[in-house]
Design a protein that fits this description.
The complex is a heterodimer of chains A (302) and B (242). Chain A has helices spanning 78-92, 106-117, 139-142, 145-156, 174-183, 222-233, 249-258, 267-271, 275-290; strands at residues 6-8, 11-13, 17-19, 60-63, 66-69, 97-101, 122-128, 163-166, 188-191, 195-197, 200-201, 206-207, 214-217, 240-243, 262-265. With 302 residues, chain A is an alpha/beta fold. In chain A, the strands form 4 sheets. A 7-stranded parallel β-sheet of chain A has the order 3-15-14-9-8-7-6. Chain A has a 4-stranded antiparallel β-sheet with strand order 4-5-13-10, with no helix packed on it. In chain A, strands 1-2 form a two-stranded antiparallel sheet. In chain A, β1 and β2 (11-13) form a beta hairpin. Chain B has 4 helices and 15 strands. In chain B, the strands form 3 sheets. Chain B has a 7-stranded mixed β-sheet with strand order 10-9-8-7-11-12-15, sandwiched between helices. With 242 residues, chain B is mostly beta strands. The chains are: A alpha/beta (302), B mainly beta (242). At the A-B interface, β4, β5 and α8 of A face β13 of B.
Chain lengths: 302, 242
């Protein structure tokens, strides 16, 4: 359906719906549920240079408006992701994907991006500088404008594929960070990653998460994500992939009106694994109701 | 995995904080012991993973304990309402392990899936022995149900208010093969007293179907998801942590 088409960088997506990194694995858990080729794209589980088990359990907590996780970038490492996971994903999903990568040093980011540059099925490299669940690197990079500059510059030098920097909301001024990315040649911004939070087991007087703190996701963060996307979209000219608590076709439209060219669906996949399909099917009805011809016409209207 | 609506025909307290919910709907694929479903509960963001304790025709029985907000809300749902299940999920027990007289041993809210397991073992010509442990007489449930299936059932309570006094491991002799479900310290103690066995592990889950890695544990064969490769694991595979 043409009216759902969106453009981000040189890529034309059939629709703006992309499952977010870490909530869709490499597609295997969803391929039997529905035809995943209806998706605009897929952002793969965050990849690190070396294999990571991640944090100890419990890694999951809940609250009224969503959930917290402290998974800590569990993944089989770059080589296996490229040789096995992306090879398999390419068989079941026939469109370019977003390769989400996370490093613990500039050198690691460079190695990851170099490797993903060579993978044909990778359409966009999503550089995660905002994981709140690792104790070195991760969010520490994304909260320091100087580090953001260094990483963006370094990775842009080693790839011709579009680079989207995934930003953390755990900063005083996200606009400043986004501008730094743009100035160093980033092709786009993915925002927002999770917000750092915690829950306490009041009987045990102990944090629920073994990692103590974890990333908040789900509907509670939607208004905050929306506000940040809106602020950034007014100050930068590169496209934004908006995410944070999106759970319905109305949320998608709202996020795009705020300034996002495409969206990612995260936590909602975990509660309702058919949510992306349901949203894609519902979007044309919503556009009709609102008198919108093409979804790309609403990007940044607010 | 499907998303199915079930009608609630029973939701009753059967012991202290322990409830039994009987559902009617599409039970296709739930017919294996140790299988669970993610249950959607109004006012809770995440679904709740609960094991099947009996499957018959178009009926599923879940026995659950009130341990927090989700299970409390679940206990307040009136019969006649509908509830949505995401399932069937998990690997289930392997009932063809090849042992003629295995021990089925469980504690507390780990006991429910063992009832259906016991039934399936007996249907397969296996004659299990059963040991069930509870904290207190007020928490005892399913005694009759097990005794209807199987002649050799022993009950213990920690404080001696019902059955023999003590922990299930107090009367446990070294066993060739064990099927178990219960609190982690109990499972760990049991694993030291058997040659082989299958253990049902528990974890806080995000999705329940393998997408989020929220319940991933380290095993001797690398990381495995409690929800997907588990929740039943062979003794040889489990790395017990403190």
């Amino acid at each position: 359906m043409e009216r759902l088409n969106v453009n981000i960088s040189h890529l034309k997506l059939d629709n703006p719906i992309i499952p977010a990194s870490g909530t869709f694995g490499y597609g295997k858990e969803f391929e039997d549920l529905y035809d995943i080729n209806i998706l605009g794209s897929i952002s793969i589980k965050g990849t690190t240079l070396h294999e990571r088990y991640g944090n100890e359990l419990p890694r999951i907590a809940e609250f009224n408006g969503g959930m917290l996780n402290s998974v800590g970038l569990q993944n089989p490492g770059l080589k296996k992701v490229v040789d096995e996971e992306l090879t398999y994903l390419n068989k079941i999903f026939k469109k370019p994907v977003l390769a989400n990568v996370s490093g613990f040093s500039i050198d690691e980011y460079v190695k990851l991006v170099k490797a993903m540059d060579k993978v044909e099925s990778v359409g966009i490299i999503e550089v995660n500088i905002s994981c709140p669940n690792v104790h070195q690197g991760g969010m520490a990079f994304g909260t320091d404008a100087k580090e953001v500059v260094r990483i963006t510059k370094a990775v842009k030098d080693v790839t011709r594929k579009p680079v989207f920097i995934k930003l953390t909301p755990n900063v005083t001024d996200i606009v400043e960070i986004a501008k730094a990315c743009e100035a160093e040649g980033a092709d786009g911004i993915s925002m927002i990653n999770t917000l750092l939070g915690m829950r306490i087991d009041i009987k045990k007087r102990k944090p629920i998460l073994d990692n103590i703190y974890g990333g908040i996701s789900g509907p509670a963060i939607f208004p905050l994500a929306l506000r940040m996307v809106n602020q950034v979209s007014k100050e930068v000219n590169i496209p934004i992939i908006g995410m944070g608590g999106i759970s319905s076709s109305e949320d998608v439209i709202e996020m795009m009106m705020a300034g996002a060219s495409a969206v990612q669906i995260g936590a909602a996949n975990l509660v309702n694994p058919w949510i992306c399909k349901e949203i894609i099917e519902d979007l044309p009805n919503k556009l009709d109701e609102l008198g919108i011809d093409n979804i790309k016409d609403i990007v940044g209207v607010v | 995995m499907r998303k199915d609506k079930f009608a609630i025909i029973e939701n009753e307290k059967i012991a202290n904080d322990i409830y039994k919910m009987v559902l009617v709907g599409n039970t296709l694929g739930y017919d294996k012991p140790g299988i669970f479903a993610e249950i959607s509960i109004d006012l809770c963001y995440l679904n709740r993973p609960i094991s099947m304790s009996w499957v018959e025709g178009d009926e599923l029985t879940l026995v659950y304990k009130i341990v927090g907000k989700g299970t409390k809300l679940m206990s307040e749902i009136k019969t006649g309402n509908e509830i949505t299940l995401l399932g069937p999920l998990g690997s289930g027990y392997n009932i063809e392990a090849g042992y003629k007289r295995p021990l089925v041993i469980g504690g507390g809210i780990g006991i429910p899936p063992l009832l259906y397991l016991t039934k399936k073992l007996i249907e397969n010509g296996i004659k299990p022995k059963v040991i069930l442990g509870f904290n207190d007489a007020k928490e005892v449930f399913y005694e009759k149900d097990f005794k209807n299936l199987c002649a050799d059932v022993q009950i213990l309570t920690l404080n001696g208010t019902y059955g023999n006094k003590g922990l299930v491991t107090d009367i446990l002799e070294f066993e060739e093969y064990i099927y178990s479900c219960g609190p982690l310290p109990m499972l760990k103690a049991i694993s030291n007293k058997c040659k082989h066995g299958q253990f049902s592990l528990e974890a806080r889950m995000g999705c329940g179907f393998g997408a989020c890695m929220g319940c991933s544990i380290e095993t001797v064969n690398g990381p495995k998801r409690v929800c997907k490769e588990g929740p039943i694991f062979d003794k040889e595979e489990i790395i017990w942590k403190d």
